[in-house]
Amino acid sequence: MGFFERYLSVWVGLCIIAGVGLGYAVPGLFESIAALEYAHVNLVVAVLIWLMIYPMMVQIDFGSIKDVGKKPKGLVLTLVVNWLIKPFTMALLGWLFFKGIFADWVDPQTATEYIAGMILLGVAPCTAMVFVWSHLTKGDANYTLVQVSINDLIMVIAFAPLTAMLLGVTDITVPWDTLLLSVALYVVLPLVAGYITRRSLEKKKATTSGQNAGTDTRAIDALVNKFKPFSVIGLLLTIVILFGLQAETILSQPQDIVLIAIPLLIQTYGIFAIAYFAAKRLKLPHNIAAPACMIGTSNFFELAVAVAISLFGLHSGAALATVVGVLVEVPVMLSLVWFANRTRHWFDGAN
């Protein structure tokens, strides 16, 4: 483990502070970055996330993907957590806190919008950053790809009706441009780039050795190691930008940020605990268990933000709740990555 990776939590904390400070000191810079978006997908952040995802895509052995179906437990766990547990626990926690515990601190209309924003986060499983969390926990790249792909297919069908049911609204319109662009940027393009890179390395091995093309793991490992510093830099810059873009909100509405963050933190850690316990009971190997739990825990925040804005408006409580979800997710998920890596021995000997 390199120097930067060893002290990643320290760099993340410094980047959060730097992001808020820079966002307050030079708001014009972050306004320019915010303007570089299409379909609610910020293109600068997209490039940085792509930089993080690409090394993992290079490691995918496309010939082995067909074998993923022989180990269905990890897929079942992901689907159950994402679609049968997470949306409903998020709705329950939102109602419990903003209609109960925090009722005296938030007016009823704002409370309803906060709950709606939380529900939108709960109904949108992660598409992009989960590749990063999987990579950091040494997850099975082939299995993670299949898990994400299946969730994306289900999301196309289930997002609108499930959101409508939980929000009590009938006219949910899926922002297809956001959904399709995100899938293209975070799954399709890096996957194609990874495939081309892997094939190039295989052909190079065949040319230099005179043998049939095959997987040159040493060359792939060397390439991934070269990309590690860039991936870490991409992650840290993403944190600076996300917190810089929301610096004004963080500083002007600190109480509301804290109120929204509390149930989101309980939801995130709670869902991970449920999934991790289930993975242990299912005797999943760690390289499948960790990514499965990360997928069930993290959110597709671009989609949630886009729907919140379209339904409730740019300056609504729902939009704010989805933004808080973005701010909470990265540092919390990194803490779960640390926990998953520290508990790898729990899964030793799993079938």
UniProtKB/TrEMBL annotation:
<feature type="transmembrane region" description="Helical">
    <location>
        <begin position="75"/>
        <end position="98"/>
    </location>
</feature>
<dbReference type="InterPro" id="IPR038770">
    <property type="entry name" value="Na+/solute_symporter_sf"/>
</dbReference>
<dbReference type="GO" id="GO:0005886">
    <property type="term" value="C:plasma membrane"/>
</dbReference>
<dbReference type="GO" id="GO:0015104">
    <property type="term" value="F:antimonite transmembrane transporter activity"/>
</dbReference>
<feature type="transmembrane region" description="Helical">
    <location>
        <begin position="38"/>
        <end position="54"/>
    </location>
</feature>
<comment type="similarity">
    <text>Belongs to the arsenical resistance-3 (ACR3) (TC 2.A.59) family.</text>
</comment>
<keyword id="KW-0812">Transmembrane</keyword>
<keyword id="KW-0472">Membrane</keyword>
<keyword id="KW-0813">Transport</keyword>
<feature type="transmembrane region" description="Helical">
    <location>
        <begin position="145"/>
        <end position="167"/>
    </location>
</feature>
<dbReference type="GO" id="GO:0015297">
    <property type="term" value="F:antiporter activity"/>
</dbReference>
<dbReference type="GO" id="GO:0015105">
    <property type="term" value="F:arsenite transmembrane transporter activity"/>
</dbReference>
<dbReference type="InterPro" id="IPR002657">
    <property type="entry name" value="BilAc:Na_symport/Acr3"/>
</dbReference>
<feature type="transmembrane region" description="Helical">
    <location>
        <begin position="227"/>
        <end position="245"/>
    </location>
</feature>
<dbReference type="InterPro" id="IPR004706">
    <property type="entry name" value="Arsenical-R_Acr3"/>
</dbReference>
<feature type="transmembrane region" description="Helical">
    <location>
        <begin position="318"/>
        <end position="339"/>
    </location>
</feature>
<dbReference type="Pfam" id="PF01758">
    <property type="entry name" value="SBF"/>
</dbReference>
<protein>
    <submittedName>
        <fullName>Arsenic transporter</fullName>
    </submittedName>
</protein>
<keyword id="KW-1003">Cell membrane</keyword>
<feature type="transmembrane region" description="Helical">
    <location>
        <begin position="291"/>
        <end position="312"/>
    </location>
</feature>
<feature type="transmembrane region" description="Helical">
    <location>
        <begin position="114"/>
        <end position="133"/>
    </location>
</feature>
<feature type="transmembrane region" description="Helical">
    <location>
        <begin position="257"/>
        <end position="279"/>
    </location>
</feature>
<feature type="transmembrane region" description="Helical">
    <location>
        <begin position="179"/>
        <end position="197"/>
    </location>
</feature>
<keyword id="KW-1133">Transmembrane helix</keyword>
<feature type="transmembrane region" description="Helical">
    <location>
        <begin position="7"/>
        <end position="26"/>
    </location>
</feature>
